[in-house]
Amino acid sequence: MKAAPRPCSIADTLALVGEKYSLLVLREVLLGVHRFDRIARNTGAPRDILTTRLRRLVDAGVLEKVPYSERPQRFEYRATAAGEELQPVLLALMAWGDRHLNETPPVVLKHRCGAELAPKVVCAACGEDADRPSLTARVDAPGWTTAGPAED
Length: 152
Hints:
Elements: H1 9-17, H2 20-30, H3 36-43, H4 47-59, E1 63-69, E2 74-79, H5 81-84, H6 87-100
Antiparallel strand pairs: 1-2
Helix pairs in contact: 2-3
């Protein structure tokens, strides 16, 4: 009998936004592209798939539909607070892709200070890098085990 997967916030998040076009929709909205036709063009998503992804992200509270025209009725898509919180995830994915998959980054983001953005994860309490050696896990969910001595 196959064991049930252990509870995991990463798995839960991937179930919502882990599909290619969902992440690309979020990329576009967070870069300021809000209308269906431009999102479709910039992501390359087929219109039926894009419609499904947008509906799912709206239903989950990641995006909201905002009317911009009454005749004909048209909507644009805006990130909610929950959607805005996904921006660091997208920035980290982009930075990884720039380092490991693309010789020349396709898009370069500049911070308001003028420097090219180089995202990194730091501890909010002390400001130190949150790299693998600095982290330990407290397991609160059933079904989880931590690494044994041979796995460290």
